[in-house]
From TrEMBL, chain A:
One of its GO terms (molecular function) is ATP binding. Signal peptide: none annotated. Residues 251-267 have a biased composition (Basic and acidic residues). It comes from Marinobacter nitratireducens. Coiled coil: none annotated. InterPro entries: AAA+_ATPase, ABC_AA/LPS_Transport, ABC_transporter-like_ATP-bd, BCA_ABC_TP_C, P-loop_NTPase. This is Branched-chain amino acid transport ATP-binding protein LivG. Keywords: ATP-binding, Nucleotide-binding, Transport. Residues 7-248 form the ABC transporter domain. PROSITE patterns: ABC_TRANSPORTER_2 (PS50893). The keyword Ubl conjugation does not apply. One of its GO terms (cellular component) is plasma membrane. SUPFAM superfamilies: P-loop containing nucleoside triphosphate hydrolases.
Automatic annotation (TrEMBL), chain B:
GO terms for molecular function: branched-chain amino acid transmembrane transporter activity. This is Branched-chain amino acid transport system permease protein LivM. It comes from Marinobacter nitratireducens. It is a multi-pass membrane protein. The chain crosses the membrane at residues 26-47, 54-80, 100-119, 126-144, 175-194, 224-249, 261-286, 298-318. Keywords: Cell membrane, Membrane, Transmembrane, Transmembrane helix. Pfam families: BPD_transp_2. It comes from the Bacteria. It is found in: Cell inner membrane. Its main location: membrane. InterPro entries: ABC_transp_permease, LivM-like. GO terms for cellular component: plasma membrane.
């Protein structure tokens, strides 16, 4: 039987001193899916991301990529294998041009990234591909602009293009629409939809309308553990999910503040 | 996506802009070269050589500090290791030609640099600075205790010898042009490193390390290489210095020296190519001028004041501020 899941975690646990941030999480990400990871603040979504990309070391458990155990690999090695992440705060190289940002990603596979004696002009051959990628996110005209001068939404688009330059098999997006106005959100939804063709995407997202539009499957995390999993209709009808999101268990302030945030996100 | 843009045109513009930048750099380098070639006819060559040696030291330091974002507080160790190794070899093995002695000194500090790097590179920020400082102090005490260095007295009377066994370096003019040639070679090397494919990766690591990791770069390895190149060039500066002054002393190993190179780099402009050269020239001149006058006991406080002023008011240093000015006013 062929392995239907490209990415899988088995009993993944992350303990910080006196606190279990991720508790026995079993994720199964099916190839070609756009899979969302949702849950209230502090549910451990970003921690899971950090574990998958080894920015944090799991306390226990396994991570499997196409059936192979990749738990011991380092961050850089995981990226080269094709699991590439973005960050919650836009991760760009601020004092490089948009084109250079993307070129650095392409350089990973060039085999000249230690060549300190080579002319910088040897990188010009990558420029054409950079321009294609920039064009695909509508940034071609900003190729020569220093990134720090780009507007926030454009930085995020640049980040996505840089991530795509790695030709990832699995794209891990940490809140791609965070801090965006509604027009930008629509643009990002389109970009993600395009980027997801032929790939698998795992995204953390607060904005439930984005999730409902994009995602094939949703895993809900609460307090570090998987609460439930399913498609949007199943998950949104689940009373447990309503409970953690809306605080209908009457758990007082915490529940109230979260439901407020959630209402905002869901607009 | 929005409006049609011709990618090829933009690409062409970028390449042309790059070429124009390279041309400007060449012109600037050319002017400086002419000046440096003529300088010993107008100024005392030994003083000029002192400036060149410290410039090289600062250029080496800046590769790590300005271009990689790693603040080493132990670069004196490399300057001193280069100087002592070369001094010892040239003093004790008369068959050795000068350039071999200098090469050996450079090699010694390269190896030391690799050791430092492997022990410190996983630390960040202030911890990295502290580890390099601690290691450099170890090296300092080693030199204090070792009999071959002459301890507090230093190593005197290092023979300048003959370059390739042919050209006598006792002649200050010959010595000057040799030092100048080495300096130019190293300067061009660093210029190359910074603009190379490797330099691009360094830049990205400096600007956003986590992102560089997520793009598949094993950042520690890139940092180690930068550290080693920097240590090698710093050692070379120390080696040449010991030959020029025929002296290797504990001053070069003292943490004071590690501080001074930071000052030079900051005053001149960190992360610029020419900045450390301008900074070293400035600091060496200020020290010299002050030591001649009634303020000779006030050298350190005055340099300290300049340091504070730079950090507070001229963050980008002399060259950095000039670059900003040119960009703002001349397009």
């Amino acid at each position: 039987m062929t392995e239907p899941y490209v990415l899988e975690t088995r009993n993944l646990v992350k303990e910080f001193k006196g606190f279990v941030a991720v508790n026995d999480v079993n994720l199964k990400i099916q190839k070609g899916h756009i899979h969302a990871l949702i849950g209230p603040n502090g549910a451990g979504k970003t921690t899971v991301f950090n574990l998958l990309t080894k920015f944090l070391i799991p306390t226990r458990g396994q991570i499997l990529y196409k059936g192979d155990d990749i738990t011991p690999l380092k961050s850089a090695a995981i990226a080269r294998k094709g699991i590439v992440r973005s960050f919650q705060i836009s991760a760009v190289f601020p004092h490089m041009t948009a084109l250079e940002n993307i070129r650095v990603a392409l350089q990973t596979f060039e085999g000249t990234s230690f060549s300190f004696w080579k002319s910088g002009n040897s990188l010009h051959k990558l420029n054409a591909r950079c321009m294609e990628l920039l064009d695909s996110v509508g940034l071609a005209e900003f190729a020569n602009t220093t990134t720090v001068e780009l507007a926030y939404g454009r930085k995020r688009a640049l980040e996505l293009a840089t991530t795509l330059a790695m030709e990832p098999e699995i794209l891990l997006l940490d809140e791609p629409t965070q801090g965006m106005g509604s027009e930008d959100v629509d643009r990002v939804v389109e970009l993600v939809r395009t980027a997801a063709k032929g790939r698998t995407v795992l995204m953390v997202e607060h904005n439930l309308s984005v999730v409902s539009k994009l995602c094939d499957r949703i895993t809900v995390l609460a307090q570090g553990a998987v609460l439930t999993e399913g498609d949007y209709a199943t998950v949104s009808a689940d009373p447990q999910v309503r409970e953690v999101y809306m605080g209908s268990d009457g758990s007082g302030e915490r529940g109230a503040s979260e439901s407020h945030e959630n209402a905002e996100a869901a607009q | 996506m929005n409006q049609p843009v011709n990618s090829a045109d933009i690409h062409k513009a970028i390449v042309e802009q790059q070429a124009a930048q390279d041309r400007r750099k060449m012109i600037l380098n050319g002017v400086l070269l002419v000046f440096l070639l003529a300088a010993p006819f107008m100024m005392y060559p030994v003083f000029l050589m002192k400036i060149l040696c410290f410039s090289l030291f600062a250029v080496a330091f800046n590769l790590l500090f300005g271009f990689t974002g790693l603040l080493s507080f132990g670069h004196a160790a490399f300057l001193a290791t280069g100087g002592y190794t070369t001094g010892y070899l040239l003093s004790n093995y008369s068959g050795l030609t000068t350039e071999m002695g200098i090469l050996a000194g450079t090699l010694a500090s390269t190896v030391l640099g690799l050791g430092f790097a492997l022990l410190s590179i996983r630390r960040q920020g202030i911890y990295f600075a502290m580890v390099t400082l601690a290691l450099a102090q170890l090296v300092f005490f080693f030199f204090v205790q070792s009999p071959f260095t002459g301890g507090e007295d230093g190593m005197h009377g290092i023979p300048r010898g003959e370059l390739f066994g042919l050209i006598s370096l006792d002649d200050n003019m010959n010595m000057y042009y040799f030092v100048l040639a080495v300096f130019i070679g190293c300067y061009l090397l660093v210029q190359r490193v910074v603009s190379s494919p490797y330099g691009q990766v360094l830049k990205s690591i400096k600007q956003n390390e986590a992102r560089a990791v997520s793009l598949g770069y094993n950042v520690d390895r890139y940092k180690v290489l930068a550290f080693v190149i920097s240590a090698a060039l710093a050692g070379l500066a120390g080696s040449m210095k010991s030959v020029v002054f025929q002296l290797a002393s504990l001053n070069d190993a003292h943490w004071h020296m590690s501080g001074e190179v930071i000052l030079m780099t900051l005053v001149g402009g960190m992360g610029t190519l020419l900045g450390p050269v301008v900074g070293a020239t400035f600091v060496v001149n200020v020290e010299y001028q002050l030591s001649q006058g009634p303020l000779r006991d006030w050298v350190d406080p005055i340099l300290g004041g300049i340091f504070v002023l730079t950090v507070l008011a001229f963050r980008s240093g002399i060259v950095g501020e000039l670059q900003k000015f040119v960009k703002k006013n001349l397009g």
